[in-house]
């Protein structure tokens, strides 16, 4: 009888350890996906800002309208990038705070 109890206890313990590892892996995979999306979005925004800043510097004295337009794009892009950065960091925090609720915050599609 005690051998059967021991075997069942080991099986239950092994199952729990397996489930714990599986949950950790899911959380790690989600964090990596969010980090990749965050990197892609920030890199895209910074590239656009860099190009527009170059345009503004290049045409600033001769064509102030184009320079102003480029600066407007820089302002809009940087604001949107900051909003998306806050949103993605919120997702990371949600995964840390409550993994079950984090699944409801899944972004659907690209955000840039």
Describe the protein's architecture and organization.
The chain is mostly helical and 112 residues long. It has one domain. 86% of the residues lie in helices and 0% in strands. The chain has three helices and no strands. Helix 1 packs antiparallel against helix 2. The longest helix is centred in the first third of the chain and has 58 residues. The chain is rod-shaped. The C terminus is likely disordered. It catalyses: ATP + protein L-histidine = ADP + protein N-phospho-L-histidine. Keywords: ATP-binding, Kinase, Nucleotide-binding, Phosphoprotein, Transferase, Two-component regulatory system. It is an enzyme of class 2 (transferase).
Using only C-alpha atoms, the radius of gyration works out to 24 Å
SS elements, strand count: 0
Distance between the termini: 63 Å
Shape: rod-shaped
The stretches of 5 or more residues where confidence is low (pLDDT under 50) are: 107-112
Strand content is under 5%
Question: Helical content, roughly?
Answer: over 70%
């Amino acid at each position: 009888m005690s051998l059967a109890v021991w075997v069942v206890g080991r099986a239950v313990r092994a199952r729990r350890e397996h489930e714990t590892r599986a949950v950790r892996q899911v959380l790690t995979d989600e964090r990596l996906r969010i980090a990749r999306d965050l990197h892609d979005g920030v890199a895209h925004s910074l590239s656009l800002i860099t190009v527009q800043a170059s345009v503004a510097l290049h045409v600033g004295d001769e064509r102030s309208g184009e320079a102003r337009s480029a600066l407007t794009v820089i302002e809009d892009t940087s604001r949107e990038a900051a909003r998306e950065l806050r949103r993605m960091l919120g997702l990371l925090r949600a995964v840390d705070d409550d993994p079950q609720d984090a699944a409801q915050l899944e972004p659907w599609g690209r955000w840039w």
